[in-house]
Amino acid sequence: MEVILKKDVKGTGKEGDVVKVSDGFARNKLIPGGLAVEATEANKRAIAREKAKAAEKYAQDKEAAEQLAAKLTAAPVIVKTKVGDNGKLFGSITSMDIAQAVSEQLGTEVDKKKIVLDKPIKEVGETEVTVKLFQDVAAKVKVVIEGAK
Predict the structure, then answer these.
(1) 3-state secondary structure of 10
(2) Pairing state of beta strands 36-38 and 2-5?
(3) How far is CA 130 from CA 39, 50, 79, 115, in A?
(4) pLDDT, tens digit, 9 for 90 and up, residues 10-23
């Protein structure tokens, strides 16, 4: 019997796959468990439409992320903080501080969890920070730390 999987099934296939399984496995496990539907022509067309819609949404999201990446790399982000006499910061600059500076200066919201810091920023100067926006889209943002006493 051919079925269309609605969810990933270990050893059988991934979501959206049309697979051939035994009648008993399909009728006793997959279909009653909501893991699959019978592979009729109407169901195949519905799955094809859903896949096309998902691919279109993926493309739109990726394009939006690429536009945001271009905007983020265009201008440096300036973060002002208190410093001591020798140029060391009181505390450190975190991803939350950078996210707030980006939203204030560039007018775009960036989730602090998407900002990748190798180590906390503890000195005045320029630093390049990676912002992961989408699966294959990352932006290198120049962050300028300015001290104020």
Answers:
(1) coil
(2) antiparallel
(3) 45, 33, 16, 6
(4) 999 998 889 999 99
Cα angle 46, 52, 54; round to 5: 105
| SS3 at position 148 | strand
Q: What is the mean pLDDT of residues 54-72?
A: 92
Is the pLDDT at 24 greater than 70, yes or no?
yes
Distance of alpha carbon 127 from alpha carbon 145, whole angstroms: 8
Amino acid of residue 131? V
How far, rounded to the nearest angstrom, does the alpha carbon of residue 114 sit from its chain's CA centroid?
8
Classified as helix, coil or strand, 131 is strand
- Reply yes or no on whether the pLDDT at 118 is more than 90: no
Token pair listed for 70: 């271009």
Tokens linked to 113: 């969890």
Tokens of 77: 């982000």
Which pLDDT does position 82 carry in this prediction?
Answer: 85
